[in-house]
């Protein structure tokens, strides 16, 4: 390749061991999702720009796609997806007649956002979503089910791979909107968008925005922020909101919905969720429950798993398909851990056994041994060159391959140096050596 | 979603059961590749246009990507990858210092080509590649290893899922180029490109192109086509090429390389490969062995698995990383089979058991039962509504979920109607019902 190779900022790529970490995490997510009856779906990477537009702050980050030699007038205006929810809503609308509702799907795909590349922000990254979508209606208990499925997945990431604990922060847009309306604010969406910046710019600056940009008086702005201060591990938030003395029908609805989610989640995952009225979410399509998730000890990662309820995203005018879902920012979670050495794999290849080659004439015998080991599920490669054995052992060592098999009928654990006679039709590696061990610290 | 939903031609999307078929095929490919010591890698979806350009016919099919609100002058010119080989070569060049060679990797990712959408052509599709790349050199025996790994994968697709048999057609560019040069042709690449169209337009038209566009005389054009007629299941091709009376050093080299591949592959997979000198491949970067693969009974699919040896694709001027690889056109293979009903799954969801709900008050008990079944790896969902049981059974039926669990402590096989008392901590579904059964006809 003659053109100079340049790293592109914002497009992370893993080395082989990093990819093994990512695969293990994705496998575990998939397994958990499928155990809960979520089926995999993938959508095309592009959508008409009209589908991608009008969903809030994200609009300005869309990537347009066009054939280099396109005829500008005949080609549809397409853009790359920036999340898995909007394309899924389009998919549901397009294929509704062939789908069974409620539909439970997971979707693990890359998304693209033209953000300014910086710490924790990527232009291409992997999201792992679960969603449940109903036809015209969707029961409220799914708002509690979604975080429980995800907390079970994080529980396994913690138990099996060592990931720190997570806490899911839950709020409700109806609650916030009702509260703002109860304060006499006509456009609550503007308040939500600014309150969403609390973590980034702090409460003083948010208050200033509310006054300067939305024209709220200082007291009303302060009242908005008082709601955002409420955070309780149980349904105590209801009383604290009531104590603020605001009343509105939508507020009552939101309080009841959030109380139900917190109560159910606490019953199954004590300590896994908190009601946190600071949570707003930047996307416009959420209509009720909203979720964010914090990784213990890693506030710098921001929310690693977010989502919410969307009652009107998927609609064709006659029917609507309300949904609730949540999305793990897999790259946002793992790329910094891998880069910092907090996530690693015990080897950089799937191979458990390297079959050494005495000389090129005996390569067929080595291939035969490898085939017999593979037939019993043991990942095996044959040494690429009939070098002296020391060099072949180093080939294994550099990759972390634990065992080297010799044509003499012996297998060596190159970590301990122990070498024993073994039968390729019967020998088993220790269970822990069958595949690379992955640790997240 | 207000904008009208329009299907985009050339961007296939599966319904849930189709995706289950695809997942099973991808899982089986991955498992086979990892058993052979290939590690997973993914590259970013975009490359600088300079990296994507200059690789042959594909150039005009590149999709350019640009932020909608980009500043035209400061943004790199990027395009979506059209295969997994060119980005992998770039990756190798970029990260060479951190990789161990020979590097064995597989890569299962989407690629994009702005082809005119038509039968069997897609604008977005999944490719599953394996490649072995060396530092400055790569032993010839890998040219025989690559088809054997892939034939093992296809053997499993055949044995386990019922896919028809495949035959791999192997040729060698040195052989063809040497032969053309031996005929006195100065630009063999032009001949290769036109011979590559043999299957599409037939030998008469190819001969006409060779005469009209390249200025060959009729006899030379006919001699080019005589080479392309040679197809043997063994090394018989060597003698048949010799009989054409052309000689060139590069021809000898190509004959020896191809003979070695065919001989080795025949030893391990009798009948799996044929030497077929019609095979040319459209991409410019191949330098030796080239592969194509035919699915028995499905000539309309074209080659479902193609690749070859590329000695100079990855190079930074000082070093080069020669490689050999092959790529399954997963979408090209499966999308038509799924669309025609030749590929199906026994159910459209991963779920094996639906736990019925007596009334909303007993939902926690149903959630508890579901959790105990999942703890033993049984995919389970809880009925979304406490409808009458007939309706809940229909919920399962429509999705193909084989078992419904009742709060009374009984489980019903809804296919046979058999209902038995069962313990959620001990009951097991038959092994064949644990996950959806997939068949490719």
From TrEMBL, chains A, B:
GO terms for cellular component: cytoplasm. GO terms for biological process: histidyl-tRNA aminoacylation. Keywords: Aminoacyl-tRNA synthetase, ATP-binding, Cytoplasm, Ligase, Nucleotide-binding, Protein biosynthesis. One of its GO terms (molecular function) is histidine-tRNA ligase activity. It comes from the Bacteria. Pfam families: HGTP_anticodon (PF03129), tRNA-synt_His (PF13393). Residues 432-441 have a biased composition (Basic and acidic residues). Residues 1-350 form the Aminoacyl-transfer RNA synthetases class-II family profile domain. It catalyses: tRNA(His) + L-histidine + ATP = L-histidyl-tRNA(His) + AMP + diphosphate + H(+). Its EC number is 6.1.1.21. Residues 417-441 are annotated as: Disordered. L-histidine binds at residues 83-85, 113, 127, 131, 281, 285-286. Belongs to the class-II aminoacyl-tRNA synthetase family. PANTHER family: HISTIDINE--TRNA LIGASE, HISTIDYL-TRNA SYNTHETASE. Homodimer. This is Histidine--tRNA ligase.
């Amino acid at each position: 390749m003659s053109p100079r190779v340049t790293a592109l900022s914002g497009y992370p790529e893993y080395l082989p061991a990093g990819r093994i970490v990512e695969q293990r995490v994705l496998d575990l997510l998939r397994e958990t999702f499928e155990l809960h009856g979520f089926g995999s779906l993938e959508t095309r990477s592009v959508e008409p720009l009209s589908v991608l537009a009008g969903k809030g702050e994200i609009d300005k980050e869309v990537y347009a796609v066009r054939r280099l030699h396109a005829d500008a007038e005949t080609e549809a205006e397409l853009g790359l997806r920036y999340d898995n929810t909007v394309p899924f809503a389009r998919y549901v609308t397009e294929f509704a007649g062939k789908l069974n509702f409620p539909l439970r799907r997971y979707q693990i795909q890359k998304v693209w956002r033209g953000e300014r590349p910086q710490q924790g922000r990527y232009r291409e990254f992997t999201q792992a979503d679960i969603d449940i979508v109903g036809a015209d209606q969707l029961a409220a208990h799914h708002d509690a089910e979604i975080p429980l499925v995800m907390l079970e997945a994080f529980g396994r990431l913690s138990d099996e791979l060592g990931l720190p604990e997570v806490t899911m922060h839950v709020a409700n847009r109806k609650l916030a909107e009702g509260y703002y309306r109860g304060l006499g604010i006509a456009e609550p969406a503007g308040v939500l968008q600014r309150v969403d910046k609390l973590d980034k710019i702090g409460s003083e600056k948010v208050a200033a925005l509310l006054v300067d940009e939305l024209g709220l008086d200082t007291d009303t702005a302060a009242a908005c922020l008082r709601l955002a201060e409420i955070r309780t591990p149980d349904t105590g938030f209801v009383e604290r909101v009531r104590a603020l003395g605001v009343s509105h029908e939508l507020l009552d609805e939101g309080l009841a919905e959030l109380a139900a989610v917190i109560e159910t989640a606490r019953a199954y995952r004590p300590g896994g969720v908190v009601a946190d009225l600071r949570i707003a979410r930047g996307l416009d399509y959420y209509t009720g429950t909203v979720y964010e998730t914090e990784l213990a000890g890693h506030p710098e990662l921001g929310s690693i798993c977010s989502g919410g309820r969307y009652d009107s995203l998927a609609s064709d005018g006659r029917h609507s398909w309300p949904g609730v879902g949540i999305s793990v920012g897999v790259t946002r979670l793992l790329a910094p851990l891998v880069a910092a050495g907090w996530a690693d794999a015990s080897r950089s290849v799937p191979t458990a056994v390297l079959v050494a080659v005495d000389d090129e004439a005996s390569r067929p015998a080595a291939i035969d041994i490898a085939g017999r080991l593979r037939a019993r599920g043991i990942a095996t490669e044959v040494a690429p060159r009939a070098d002296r054995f020391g060099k072949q052992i180093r080939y294994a060592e550099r990759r972390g391959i634990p065992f080297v098999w010799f044509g003499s009928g012996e297998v060596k654990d190159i970590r301990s140096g122990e070498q024993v006679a073994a039968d390729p039709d019967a020998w088993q590696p220790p269970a822990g050596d069958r595949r690379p061990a992955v640790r997240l610290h």
